[in-house]
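step: validate -> pass
step: tokenize input -> pass
step: predict -> running
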Amino acid sequence: MIKLYSDAHCPNSHRTRIVLAEKELPVETQELEADNLPADFMKINPYGKLPTVIDRDIVFFESSVVNEYLDERYPHPPLKPGSPAERAQMRLAV
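step: predict -> pass
step: emit ->
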């Protein structure tokens, strides 16, 4: 199961929650406050970045990296458009 550390008030965390919901992936979520991160979280991610995802004992952070990983690791349904031009437009929108 995927573990998500997120902040309910963080737009980047919200984007990752949307990706997980769209892909209907099972996830265990732990809500944190970005300005008050617990020591046990800092051991997992010493950079203190949210969202942070743990999948198969691998830790990912930075929302764009997390979201791209989720889309590639769990390809159905795909969230990225098929053509390079459409993907570039998607990146501009994000």
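step: describe -> The longest strand covers residues 2-6.
step: cleanup -> pass
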